[in-house]
Amino acid sequence: MLNQVTLIGRLTHDPVVKTMEDGKKVSDIQIAVQRAFKNMDGLYETDFISCSLWQGSAEIIENYCKKGSMVAIRGRLQTRKLELANNKIISVIELVGERVIHLSSTFKTSPSCPEEDA
């Protein structure tokens, strides 16, 4: 079995790294990914994909990227259950990033941005 996804898109907000109780770092981001085809109205639609980046990848994206930065994220799809206020449980699919590459020509804090394996 194989669960591998690569997405290229733009950050919808500035990334923020949170430190979990166990000391691990995570950044929950969202990227806007334009579809490769036009809809019935002749427009390109955009999907907004939630992504979780851990440890080094989270730090890289926080230090070198900002809202609007174009990034490539390789990772795996993962589902998790969320309980809503009315006790209804829904499944959410998100991308857990394993590798991030910064593709934009603008930088948040430094002119050189490495790529990082998670």
UniProtKB/TrEMBL annotation:
The keyword DNA-binding applies. The keyword Membrane does not apply. One of its GO terms (molecular function) is DNA binding. It comes from the Bacteria. It holds the Pfam family SSB. Keywords: DNA-binding. InterPro entries: NA-bd_OB-fold (IPR012340), Primosome_PriB/ssb (IPR000424), ssDNA-bd (IPR011344). Homotetramer. PANTHER family: SINGLE-STRANDED DNA-BINDING PROTEIN, SINGLE-STRANDED DNA-BINDING PROTEIN, MITOCHONDRIAL. HAMAP family: SSB (MF_00984). This is Single-stranded DNA-binding protein. The gene is ssb.
